[in-house]
Amino acid sequence: MAAGNEYRIPKVVLGSSAGQRSMPVLGFGTAADSPDSAVMKTAVLEAIMLGYRHFDTAFLYGSEQALGEAIAEALKLGLVGSRDELFVTSKLWCSDAHPHLVIPALQKSLGNLQLEYLDLYLVHWPVSARPGKLELPIKEEDVVPMDFKSVWEAMEECQRLGLTKSIGVSNFSCKKLDNILSFATIPPSVNQVEMNPMWQQKKLIEFCKARNIIVTAYSPLGAKGTRWGTNDVMDSQVLKDIALAIGKTIAQVCLRWIYEQGATFVPKSYNKERLKQNLDIFDWQLTEDDLHKISQIRQKKMIRVGVLHASDPEILEELWDGEL
Ligand code: NAP
């Protein structure tokens, strides 16, 4: 195992960013069940010392401010030479997913983060909610149809203005991506979605690969211990057996598996040992037999209603385009 920041995290090139931008395949997730800024700031600094350079936040998470403070501290301490060495992603919340609100929302996120630009700005969900309301789950009566074309044009404008180096989406189905691609002048660089051995996203991975869109796996460990998560991934007997046989942890098997699928990933950990463990996945590989066993795991999507307060099958069909 490497020590200090000798861990080498591979990078992927983003297809349609301003200039040639690359993104470290492993990022640091910042969505926590009960956000604690001090704990998160310490974890970000530890992560930077270990070699993490990619940070995933969102307006919704309430973690932008603490991440910004930690980055400012890291720069002051000289843990990173300059802001350009970091890759920071944030996301447009549903109540701001209206053409005239996109640029102001990004500017607000930049203010929270104390940054001049983002590396990646994502449409958080393919859902627009009534402006001015930050509610989760979103009530059915507050959902309004998204004007995908105009929202995407505003995202493109964010990139043109230099407020972000690249743009993308999150929780988009193949069908919704196809729609964006039909009018985009700057195609999405990334689609961030739920992905782990229990929800392998085979179709979406192929679709995105063919269109030069990077898939980023969120909840790569099944978000065990969170209110939106499941124990199914970390308790999987198949993964346990593989981990035991190769002397790795279940988390490492999950992350390595995602890496071998060609996707990138943003596990969340605020624990130094686990941050280290999650980095230590780049100098070994799963066997064909392991990959076969994982491919046979029964598939079950963890996030079904997403951000919506809805049980109506039609609404869910519309959200996921039948890809449940
Ligand atoms: P996750 O990363 O799958 O799981 C997080 C949980 O796993 C935490 O309880 C963490 O605890 C634990 N953990 C981390 N490393 C571990 C290890 N090596 N061994 C055992 N347990 C470990 O779930 P997530 O937070 O849902 O997803 C990650 C990130 O994806 C989020 O933080 C967020 O940035 C992003 N996300 C995006 C969306 C979206 O809609 N775009 C949705 C959900 C999440 P400790 O902190 O105690 O280690």
UniProtKB/TrEMBL annotation:
Keyword Electron transport (UniProt): no
Database matches in Pfam families: Aldo_ket_red (PF00248)
Binding site for substrate: H124
UniProt keyword terms in alphabetical order: Oxidoreductase
InterPro entries referenced in this protein's UniProt entry, alphabetically: AKR (IPR020471), AKR4A/B (IPR044497), Aldo/ket_reductase_CS (IPR018170), NAD(P)_OxRdtase_dom_sf (IPR036812), NADP_OxRdtase_dom (IPR023210)
Site, Lowers pKa of active site Tyr: residue positions: K91
Listed GO MF terms: oxidoreductase activity, acting on the CH-OH group of donors, NAD or NADP as acceptor
Location of the active site: Y61
GO terms of biological process kind: secondary metabolite biosynthetic process
Domain named NADP-dependent oxidoreductase: residues: 28-297
Gene3D superfamilies (UniProt xref): NADP-dependent oxidoreductase domain
Coiled coil regions, renumbered to chain: none
Protein name in UniProt: NADP-dependent oxidoreductase domain-containing protein
Source species: Rhamnella rubrinervis
